[in-house]
């Protein structure tokens, strides 16, 4: 599944090289040449992963990583730091800010893509094509199919993404604002009751297989997928 990846890199040739390779691998790419622009983009829509250059004009990559980690909304966005430095103490400093991984320039496109896949698997499984099974449901992103005990569950594209996110983050409560950020990629212009509408549709689609109770309402907080709630 295509991930939304924000590339923050001030050297145009490197930014271009990275973007071309990510697009070729099927990802969606947003670009920023400085930390301030990146912050503006993140404010509008939460990316699935950020590739963040260490040395940037103005605010450094390290400072941006620190800021993202200090805010509840952006705390869990996966970050891979890019740097020309290869020194061990710099690597440690980068990881101390909360970066998930670290790549030293120059790197091969293949290495970059492998690192991205590894970090997404660990930190944003809803942005990968890995099939997920829970509560008697099987969701296969590559085939865009959901099955319950072998029979297919027909879902609209939004319900599919919503279920994918909930299943890959099971047993945790997600607020409507978080779901808008994660599933719709828009917490600014889409109203929170839109989430309720799609949760209802999702439950209706799961009803025939008796799996609708897997999607729970947590009063005053939001929604949760609980595999033990059949
Ligand atoms: Ca740079």
Descriptive account of the structure:
With 230 residues, the protein is of the alpha/beta class. It contains 8 helices and 11 strands. It has helices at residues 12-24, 35-44, 61-70, 88-96, 109-123, 157-168, 176-184, 193-207, and strands at 4-8, 28-32, 49-53, 79-83, 101-104, 132-134, 137-140, 145-148, 151-153, 215-218, 222-225. Strands 2-1-3-4-5 form a 5-stranded parallel beta sheet, sandwiched between helices. The chain has a 4-stranded antiparallel beta sheet with strand order 6-7-8-9, covered by helices on one side. A two-stranded antiparallel sheet has the order 10-11. β6 (132-134) and β7 (137-140) form a beta hairpin. α6 (157-168) crosses α7 and α6 packs across α8. It is elongated, with a radius of gyration of 19 Å. The two termini are 28 Å apart. The mean pLDDT is 92. It binds calcium ion. Residues 10-11, 53, 55-56 line the site of calcium ion (CA). Calcium ion binds next to loops.
Question: Largest beta sheet, briefly?
Answer: 5 strands, parallel
Q: Identify the overall geometry.
A: elongated
Strand content: 15-25%
Number of helices in the DSSP assignment: 8
CATH topology group of the largest domain: Rossmann fold
Poorly predicted spans: none
Total domains = 2
SSE class: alpha/beta
Gap from first CA to last CA:
28 Å
- Output the CATH homologous superfamily of the largest domain: Response regulator
Helix content: 40-55%
E-strand count: 11
């Amino acid at each position: 599944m295509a991930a939304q990846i924000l590339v923050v890199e001030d050297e145009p040739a490197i930014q271009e090289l990275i973007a071309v390779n990510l697009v070729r691998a099927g990802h969606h790419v947003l670009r920023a040449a400085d930390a301030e622009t990146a912050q503006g983009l993140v404010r509008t829509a939460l990316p699935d992963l950020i590739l963040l250059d260490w040395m940037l004009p103005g605010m450094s990559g390290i400072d941006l990583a620190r800021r993202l980690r200090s805010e509840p909304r952006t705390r869990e966005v996966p970050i891979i730091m890019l740097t020309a430095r290869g020194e061990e103490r710099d690597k440690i400093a980068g990881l101390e800010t909360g970066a998930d991984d670290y790549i030293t320039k120059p790197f091969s496109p293949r290495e970059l893509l492998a690192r991205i896949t590894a970090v997404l698997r660990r930190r944003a499984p809803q942005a990968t094509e890995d099939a997920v099974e829970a509560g008697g449901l099987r969701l296969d992103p590559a085939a865009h199919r959901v099955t319950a005990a072998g029979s297919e569950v027909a879902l609209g594209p939004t319900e599919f993404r919503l279920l994918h996110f909930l299943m890959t983050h099971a047993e945790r409560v997600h607020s409507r604002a978080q779901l808008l950020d994660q599933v719709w990629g828009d917490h600014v212009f889409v109203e929170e009751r839109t989430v309720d509408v799609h949760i209802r549709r999702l439950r209706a689609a799961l009803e025939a297989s008796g799996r609708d109770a897997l999607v729970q309402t947590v009063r005053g907080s939001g929604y949760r997928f609980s595999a033990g709630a059949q």
